[in-house]
Amino acid sequence: MKNSTFKTNALLLVLSMSVLSTTAQVKLKPVGMAATELRANADKEETVLLDEDFSLFTAGTEDEPDNKNVSDNFTGEIPSYYTKAPGWQGAAIRQAGGVCAMVLGNFSTSDGGVETLPGYLITPKGNYAGDLTMTFRARLLGNETESDKMTVALIHSEKGTLENSQLVIGKTWEEYSVTFSKGEFRSCALEFSMYSAAVLLDDIKVVSKQTSIIPPVPAGATDFNAEGFTANWYPTKEAESYLLSLYEMNMDKATTSESFDGINSTADGMVDSSNPNYPEGWQIVLAQGDGIQLSNVGYEGSQALVMGETNDWLQTPYIDGKLVDFKFYARNISGNPVNASTIKVNVMLDNDEWYELGRIDIERISTQGEFISVANSLEDNIHRVAIVFEKHANDTDKDPMIAIDQISYMVQPETVPVFVDKELTDTFYVAKGLDAAKDYCYTVKAKNTEFTSAASDAVPALGLAVPVLSVADGVSDNQYTARWQAVPKADGYYVRNFRVYTVDEPEETVVLHEDFAKATQGTQDMPYNDVMSMFGPKSLDAYTTLPGWLGQNYVTIPGMLGGNSGAGSFSKAGTVQTPALKLDGNGGKFKVEVTMCGGLGTEEDSLVIQAGSKVYKRLYFSGEYEPTTLTAEFDCGEADMPLLIYTYKGSMFFIDDIKVSQELASGSQIITEEANGFAWGNQNTAYTFSNLEQGEHENFGYRVYAYRLFCGQEVYSPSGEMALVDLNGTTDGIDMAQGVKGIFAVGRNVHVVLDQPQAVEVYDVSGRKCVDAAGTAGTNVYVLGRPGVYVVKSGGMIKKIVIR
Question: In Å, how far from its chain's centre is CA 622?
Answer without folding.
Answer: 39
